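Researcher: I'd like a structural prediction for the single chain below. Treat it as a standalone chain; there are no partners to consider.
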Amino acid sequence: MKVQRRIWFGYSITLIFFLIVTLVGNYTYKQLQIANQWVTHTHKVLGALEAITSVMKDAETGQRGYLLTSKENYLEPYNSALLNIPLKLKIIENLIDDNPQQQKEINQIKVLVDRKMAELDETIQLHRSGRAEEALKLVLTDQGKNIMDDIRVSFEEVLAVENNLLAYRSAVSNQAVDYSTWIIYGGSFFILLIAGLVAYLTSKTIGQEYIKLQTTQKSLFTTNQELVLKTTKLKQSYEEISAFELKIKKEKEKIYMATIHSAQHVTNNLLNQLMIVKHGIEETPQFDADISSMFDEMLTEAKSLMFELSSVDKIEDEKIRQSVKPI
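Model: Treating it as a single chain, here is the predicted structure.
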């Protein structure tokens, strides 16, 4: 359980750091997306301003071509500008609605653009009505040129602000990229470092536990061998004791049987002597009947004793045969 707890603790720490790096990396990535969106926004504003400038130049070119040639087809850029300029200005207004300073500049540009388009329209209308000299004089007054110069100045101011914003937002974007890179690589390295440390400690702990287990197994094996040896010795001792007990029992039985046989022999001799004495007394004239009866009882008891001794002898022989079994 101790090893398992260490393993779980180590990998939990690794997982926590992985989650932290993931969350920080995700936050940095979102910040990078926001910065890139603002960079894209700035490029859109710059593109819209350049588009208006280009359309204004086309309108002016179309006006001059018409004044020089009196051909209506030269007014196509001018007519296209009448449609596109309001759309381009609307796009810019939508893009800079978060910047009051830029909105003020765009409002001024709208006024200047309206004045420029009015000046172009006036010269065109004068030329159409046959008053070409008046139209040319109006062009030569540089009124349109001055308006166009004012438009360019306003455009440059807006462009300067947008370029500053672009530089700032690009720096923020690059900084976010740098932070993201450092966090990803640094976090990954740190996670690998923690994981390696955890793996090393886990391996070391498992190795120590394995050595302890091997030591315990060796100790158990030695103890088991000792138990087997002691068991073998105890078995040998038991066999020796059993053999010795059997030997003693046999010796006791031999002594017992020898005693019984000796008693049988003595009793048998006594019985024979009593028989001889009885016959001798019966042949004696002075033999008393009571004495004869007494000898008869003695003979009967001697025979009974002989029978009992014989029975005991048979019983003990049977016991010995049953008790003598291999261990």
